[in-house]
Amino acid sequence: CVIKNQPDSITHLISVVDRALTNARTHVLLADSAEASRAELLALLKKQQFNVTEAGSGAEALRLLDTGNGIDIVLSDIALCDMTAYGLLKEIRQRHGEDALSVVAVGAGDDRTHAAKFLQSGGTEFIQKPMLIEEFNSRLFQVANIQKRIQALHSIAARDYLTDIYNRRYFFQYGSRMVDQCLRRGGTTSIAIIDIDLFKRLNDTYGHEVGDLVLKAVAKRLRALIGEEHLLARLGGEEFGILFNELGICAAHDFCETVRRDIAAAKVVADDEELSITISIGLATIEGPETFDNYLHAADQFLYMAKYDGRNRIVS
Ligand code: GH3
Ligand code: MG
Ligand code: MG
Ligand code: MG
């Protein structure tokens, strides 16, 4: 009996720790206009380790969501002072999809149709009051856990397996949105394609594994140079893309020149050898109503000229 109980209690302990870890990484926006019931829910959430931000009205909840401080779950009372949880949900769903944000309502009273209506409107979960604390905790953990797993899948789908920088899919998806926003603001920006010079020769001389090490090293260096401000991705093979965040062609050219020099000066150590790598860059301006594909195509044409002119250079 003792032997049988021991693994169970360890399993239980692990699941309690797991739950606390997941909850601690989850940010809940708690919207409730009634002070007493908000305080009660706040205490429950805090006890379960959630990060909580409070809102006293639907309008305040929407304002806090807009300031975008990484909220994962909205937990709303069904009747707020200025709107219902349905109204809030409708506003939220216009801006945030179901993958980005879970919305949970807490309802009281005899109207048992609330739950079905709320879930059919794109709500994630509905909790009926009066409720068992353990049920409330379990339902919220379930929502947090699924939300975190969806976020993890999105992040895996956006990254290149070899270099761990963004992949081509993400570059196109997020990049075309960035360009739309920039052009709508009346701005201009620039896009670059970087291609490693004579990479096939390097593969043929040192082997594919060394080639992979070089790709990883170049990606790491590019990431360090480019930081979070601009969008960097591996477009495929030994090609990388940079979509600049509102940077005119002159400033982008200076930036690319710094990158080109840095890579040319760096030594990649592989197979006890110090390898010198150079890159060529095609750089195009983004202005006017072209498709994202066309901007990239323009950069590709300039890259072709850079290769033709002798490599290790920028053409814009
Ligand atoms: P250029 O200066 O004109 O760009 O010459 P290049 O040799 O770099 O260009 P080419 O397009 O002829 O060759 C690219 C090579 O990149 C061919 C391919 O085997 C290699 N390659 C593509 N993806 C990978 C990869 O994931 N790992 C390794 N090791 N090599 C790759
Ligand atoms: Mg090539
Ligand atoms: Mg190449
Ligand atoms: Mg290439």
TrEMBL record:
<feature type="domain" description="GGDEF">
    <location>
        <begin position="187"/>
        <end position="316"/>
    </location>
</feature>
<keyword id="KW-0597">Phosphoprotein</keyword>
<feature type="modified residue" description="4-aspartylphosphate">
    <location>
        <position position="77"/>
    </location>
</feature>
<dbReference type="GO" id="GO:0005886">
    <property type="term" value="C:plasma membrane"/>
</dbReference>
<protein>
    <recommendedName>
        <fullName>diguanylate cyclase</fullName>
        <ecNumber>2.7.7.65</ecNumber>
    </recommendedName>
</protein>
<dbReference type="GO" id="GO:0043709">
    <property type="term" value="P:cell adhesion involved in single-species biofilm formation"/>
</dbReference>
<dbReference type="GO" id="GO:0052621">
    <property type="term" value="F:diguanylate cyclase activity"/>
</dbReference>
<feature type="domain" description="Response regulatory">
    <location>
        <begin position="27"/>
        <end position="144"/>
    </location>
</feature>
<dbReference type="GO" id="GO:1902201">
    <property type="term" value="P:negative regulation of bacterial-type flagellum-dependent cell motility"/>
</dbReference>
<dbReference type="GO" id="GO:0000160">
    <property type="term" value="P:phosphorelay signal transduction system"/>
</dbReference>
